[in-house]
Amino acid sequence: MLNLLRSLQVRIVAMDNNVDALSNAYQDFLVAAAGVLEAKEASGSQKTALTDAALENFKQRWELFRVACDQAEEFVESVKQRIGSECLVDEATGSKSGQPVHGLPPISAVRLEQMSKAVRWLVIELQQGSGASTANASAPFDARFQEDTAQ
User: Fold this and answer.
1) What phi and psi, each to the nearest 5 degrees, are found at residue 4?
2) Longest dimension (CA), the chain
3) Which of 7, 74, 103, 108 has the fewest CB within 10 Å, making it most exposed?
């Protein structure tokens, strides 16, 4: 239970850091946008070194804001995946209820992790367009484990 609380605390701190970074990047972006408008007004809508500098600053702040958005999105996705994995392990191992799920016996967390890795590798291969294992492209992938074949 203590480990769960520590893990949650680490996630909250990381989320707070992501929110702060995103908020700061957004504020900098807004200031840069205002700078462009002020420079344009001060120059009478003429192109000057001041407007060029303001536009360049705006472009840089826009890129930094986009990076902060991407980092926040990646963090949220990683948390979602981790929560999903933890729930899957709990369901598969029966650790929450102590009862098998749908009459199936629980499987070990180690075996579940092995199966998860096998699925991830298959997804990566499919995303790369190969669709076949690089070790032996002519042999089909067999995700069964030794105890599966004995059944």
Assistant:
1) -65, -45
2) 82
3) 103
